[in-house]
Design a protein that fits this description.
Strand order of the largest sheet: 3-2-1-4-5-6-7
Number of strands: 7
Order of helices and strands: EHEHEHEHEHHEHHHE
GO molecular function, one term: oxidoreductase activity
CATH topology: Rossmann fold
CATH superfamily: NAD(P)-binding Rossmann-like Domain
Family: Belongs to the short-chain dehydrogenases/reductases (SDR) family.
Keywords: Oxidoreductase
Number of helices: 9
InterPro entries: NAD(P)-bd_dom_sf (IPR036291), Sc_DH/Rdtase_CS (IPR020904), SDR_fam (IPR002347)
Radius of gyration: 19 Å
Helix content: 40-55%
Structural class: alpha/beta
Strand content: 5-15%
Length: 283
């Protein structure tokens, strides 16, 4: 299932041990990309690597895993040194690592957890973005093609657009990602041939993440949620104009569009994948 948009390209995927990151590693390796998988959880990362390699019947997939703490500039720098030694270049980045944090009403939210969410989701995302962009900018100076061959996609969320009850830290962090995407894309990185966009999914499932979040919302004590997880799920889906959950595959196809040359004249844009939940035009 090779795809000319990704054959010969090297893609860094952070948060590769999580559901979205693991699916992304499978998705892009199947399409011919070389994938650089990052996660701070070594065991989860190795599960991803092993799962991807088990799909490699033709023995053509190339994926390597790197344990990296995105909140540490030193860890990111040393990891990138290893990546460049192994792969020689980076063409694309899916800046996907994140932490959901507690699900509690604002008046009960733990300050330390709020700081942790912001440190991983915002500071960590910026450290990775800046570090990879420096490499891309250096590569850009040596490119014959003066178009915008390098692409970064940040994982945001509809929570950053409309807020989610009992998730003040997560919503705040994803709003910051939206602002960061626009700030770096439109002025700072475009002259270096680097496009930067974001993806904002919502209500993706079924699966563990969907089920667990409904359980946590039900037990949060927020007046906006029923205490019954099944009723929480029904109410959420009922609020979606398309009346269904989105799939991880649908999110990945949107990420692929933004990373690829199909979106070559698109930068500083947020692509919402939510079945119409957030409403209105978002750019």
């Amino acid at each position: 299932m090779s795809d000319a948009r990704f054959v010969g390209k090297t893609i860094v995927i952070t948060g590769a041990g999580g559901n979205f990151g693991r699916a992304g590693c499978l998705f892009f390796t199947k399409r011919g990309a070389s994938v650089v998988a990052w996660d701070n959880n070594e065991s989860a990362l190795m599960e991803t690597i092993n799962e991807v390699r088990s799909q490699d019947e033709a023995n053509y997939i190339r994926i390597e895993g790197y344990t990296c703490d995105v909140t540490s500039e030193d860890s990111v720098r040393s990891t990138l040194e290893s990546v460049l030694s192994d792969f020689s270049r980076i063409d694309m980045l899916w800046n996907n690592a994140g932490y959901q944090g507690e699900i509690k009403p604002t008046l009960e939210y733990d300050i330390e957890d709020f700081s942790r969410v912001m440190n991983i989701n915002v500071t960590g995302a910026f450290i990775v973005l800046q570090s990879v962009a420096k490499i891309m900018a250096g590569q850009s100076r040596g490119e014959q093609d003066s178009s915008h061959p390098f692409s970064i996609v940040n994982t945001a969320s509809v929570a950053g657009l409309r807020g989610t009850p009992a998730m003040v830290a997560y919503s705040s962090s994803k709003a910051a990602i939206l602002a960061m995407t626009v700030a770096v894309a439109k002025k700072d990185l475009a002259p270096h041939g680097i496009r930067v966009n974001s993806i904002s999914p919502a209500l993706i499932g079924p699966g563990y993440m969907w089920t667990r979040q409904n359980e946590l919302h039900a037990s949060s004590g927020s007046p906006y949620f029923s205490s019954d997880p099944e009723q929480v799920a029904e109410a959420k889906i009922g609020g979606v104009p398309m009346k269904r959950l989105g799939t991880i595959e649908e999110v990945l196809k949107s990420v692929a569009y933004l990373l690829s040359s199909d979106s070559s004249y698109t930068t500083g844009t947020n692509l919402v994948v939510d079945g119409g939940l957030s409403g209105g035009l978002k750019a």
